Amino acid sequence: MRSKLYILLASMLVLILIMTACAPAAETEEPVAPGGRLQLIKDRGKLICGVNQELPGFGFINPDGEFEGFDVDFCKALAAAIFGDATKVEYRPLVAAERLPALQTGEIDVLIRNTTWTLTRDTANELDWAAVNFYDGQGMMVRVDSGWETLDDMAGATICTTTGTTTEMNLSDAFRALNVEFTPLLFESTQDTNTAYETGRCDGETSDKSQLAALRSAMANPEDHVILDVTMSKEPLGPLTAHGDNQWNDVVRWVTWGMMEAEETGVNSQNVDEMFNSNNPTIRRLLGVEGEMGASLGLPNDFMVNVLKQVGNYEEVYMRHLGPEGINIPRGPNLLWSEGGLLYPMAWR
Amino acid sequence: MSRGAEAAERRSAVPFWRDERVLKLLGQILFITLVILVAAWMLSNYRKRGLTFSFGFLDEEASFDLAEGLPFSPTDSYARAFLIGVVNTLRVAGLGIVFATLLGLIAGIARLSGNWLVNRIASVYIEIIRNTPLLVQLFFLYFAVILNLPGLQEAIMLSGPIYLSNRGFAFPALRPTSSFGSWWPFLVAALIGALVLLILRRRTVPSTGRPAFNLLWVGVPLIAFPAIGWQFMRGQPLILDPPELVTMSGGVMRIEGGTIFSPEFMALLLGLVIYTGAFIAEVVRAGIQAVDKGQTEAARAQGFTQGQILRLIVLPQALRVIIPPLISQYLNLTKNSSLALGIGFLDLYAVSSTMLNQSGRVVEVFLMIMASYLSMSLTISMIMNIVNRRIQIVER
User: Fold this and answer.
1) Three-state DSSP class for residue A132
2) DSSP state of B206
């Protein structure tokens, strides 16, 4: 009996020694497989894109059972750039709380799910934003009959929001700065937050203004609710990838900027074929007629042609989902820099 | 032949690769190797992604608000936020266990009742609740029932005052005042007095075999001591703090003072009690049916009433069968409380999900969650196992 125990202990000790000898070796291993994420996506034959599934305008499932929205179109654009086929996307609907771990663990290739770019997320969560595709700000929706106009009026109010978002912290900061007391109420899904607000459990609902506009448009009586003229925070939203794979991050970044560049130079899905004959050197480089822009990203040189033909430029995507025919959010800061907005794609050369 | 020699002969007869003892040992070594290999593989994956492991974030400022349970401000630490989650879970699990046991006991006995109506009501309750998912019941209770209660403006008001609305269930609270400090020794005296009487009462009078005095006498010190103390105090040591409806700007109302059970807390507590109660009812029914019919018949022959039979003969014996499955129902209730996330109650899991999102410490936070649930479950098991040991038949 005794000797058995000793053998057991001794063998465990040997094993532990072997393990500890192995562990440092594992540490020095290459963090990313050769070829990186881009090669992995090409080998797989489809892009895995993390999206929202319950936010009208940005990412939701339409009556035909397909993913649709502003963010979803950026997934399609990436697939068009890589494969020349915008349909080669597998969508992963994610709730706010699970979206970052999904990217960290490599379960998805890219997250395009109205995710705010913050310092902590960029560093502590080991993520890399590629670009900003929508400039948003946190707002507050209240009932019209409350007569409230500013956050100061809302002393003692109960405010609903979704957990796992920056919204939660901005809300605390905003009210702390004003020294106004309030009661937060957190839900896991946007839909539940909205239901709780609509049934009167909360006096106010806070989220990004674009999101509030989308939610309000789907309410039974949208005219009973008003989005206050208050902006609690900057919310730069955009696509992001896992930390440490710069090549893949560059692809996401330049496809996003390419769509803005196309709007700036007036190229869209309708006129892209004519534009091949354009004399404008920027357009010639954008469409791959000149230069090796695509090849340096690991993509075909004419990758933007596929993006523009199958998805369209930034303006077309915006108008399709967020314009007057969609959920109707004024472009505001999401106009091109040349038109007074904040969209400023870096130089395409 | 001596025993040692016999063993020595067997050892020499069987080669080691067919020796059962050696094979068992090898099996164990193989298993442990596998476990260590899997753990090392997971660890190396973790490092490959450049993730580090540290609980340092617990001291950092949380900078989010929590509005359920103990007071919390955004400047408090992550550790305090986690504590609030733990306390909220304990609160709902503790109350849930008490009420689910009561409901289960009543429903279980009712299901065996000879009264057709009582019997059927209990059956319908148990079958519907046991055969639908808890999450669906919780969503139904919260979104369809509790959130559809009237708003504060038209709150249901009972005397007390007690308010019931979609902002919660508010009732008067007992709050200690400054003179409570000199009053509580009387409370301790009352408890000690009652305890002494209880012990004295265990000495039965030999001639009758009955306790020396009625159980009601125990109540005397419990009431007398605090009352005497109350007389000597300047001011009241405890005051009743009734909830009050306050109108804010914009005609919006809120409740101040009193104790408020938030709608989320009510929905979760009710949901867990109703759900677990149905399972406990079945456990109770099985326990009662396990008691031999002869016991009931013999008791009836001796002139016991129906109530006495249940209380003195059947239940004490049924308890021996009931307790072990009851433990797993208590554990289920505690673990099921993590469904709170869906209905906005800030339990351990909901707070943690906010924490891991804001801090990015997924592995650390999940380890903390698992350790918390594990220690809660083991504590419940330990207590119930002690109870179980005490009620088993002691054979001499």
Assistant:
1) coil
2) T
| B208 or A309, higher pLDDT | A309
CB A349 within 8 A of CB A292: no
Give residue A19's pLDDT: 54
Closest CA to B91 of B298, B214, B230, B268: B268
Which domains does chain A possess?
A: 37-133+238-339 (3.40.190.10), 136-234 (3.40.190.10)
Distance from CA of A85 to the nearest CA of B (A): 31
Residue whose entry in the numeric block shows the structure tokens 């993590």: B338
To the nearest whole angstrom, how far is the Cα of B12 from the nearest Cα of chain A?
A: 18
Q: Are B360 and A126 in contact (CB under 8 A)?
A: yes
Among partner residues B29, B67, B343, which is closest to A183 by beta-carbon distance?
Answer: B67
Mutate to test the interface with A, among B61, B346, B358, B369 (most CBs of A within 10 A): B358
CATH topology assigned to domain B61-153+263-395: MetI-like fold (1.10.3720)
CA B358 to mean position of chain CA atoms:
30
Looking at CA atoms only, how far is residue A76 from chain B in angstroms? 27
Question: Across the interface, which of B49, B64, B65 has its CB nearest the CB of A104?
Answer: B49
State how beta strands A225-227 and A158-162 pair.
unpaired
* Yes or no, beta carbons of A125 and B47 under 8 Å apart: no
User: By three-state DSSP, how is residue A228 classified?
Assistant: coil
What CA dihedral angle connects B257, B258, B264 and B266, to 10 degrees? Answer: -170
| Packing angle of the helix pair A314-322, A246-265 (nearest 10 deg) | 80
Q: What is the mean pLDDT of residues B362-382?
A: 92
Amino acid identity, position A254:
W
Contacts of A171 in chain B (CB under 8 A): 65
Q: Which of chain B's residues have a Cβ under 8 Å away from the Cβ of A200?
A: 147, 151, 166
Q: What is the pLDDT of residue A24?
A: 44
Q: Which residue of B has its CA nearest to A184?
A: B67
Residues A13 and A224: beta-carbon distance below 8 Å: no
Rounded to the nearest angstrom, the minimum Cα separation between B16 and chain A is: 14
Please write the tens of the pLDDT for every residue from A112-171.
998 989 888 888 778 999 999 999 999 999 999 888 889 988 888 899 998 877 788 889
Nearest residue, CB atoms, B354 vs list A101, A126, A164:
A164
pLDDT digits (tens, 9 = 90+) for B76-99: 899 999 999 999 999 999 999 999
Please, which residues have CB within 8 angstroms of residue A139's CB and are 6 or more apart in sequence?
A: A206, A207, A208, A209, A212, A227, A228, A230, A231, A232
Question: Closest Cα of chain A to B246: distance in Å?
Answer: 10
DSSP state of A202: -
Q: What residues of B are in contact with residue A22 (Cβ under 8 Å)?
A: 40, 44
User: Can you give the pTM of this predicted structure?
Assistant: 0.74
- Rounded (5°) CA angle A319-A321-A325: 70
Query: Taking CB atoms and an 8 Å limit, are A171 and B263 in contact across chains?
Result: no
A-B CB pairs within 8 A amount to 149
Q: Which of A264, A265, A262 is nearest to A312 (CA)?
A: A262
Q: What are phi and psi of A117, to 5 degrees?
A: -85, 110
Is residue A29 scored above 50 in pLDDT? no
Region of poorest pLDDT, from A215-229, B135-149, B229-243: B229-243
How far is residue A336 from each of residues A70, A77, A78, A261, A262, measured CA to CA in Å?
A: 17, 19, 21, 9, 11
At residue A87, the 3 state secondary structure works out as coil
CB A306 within 8 A of CB A298: no
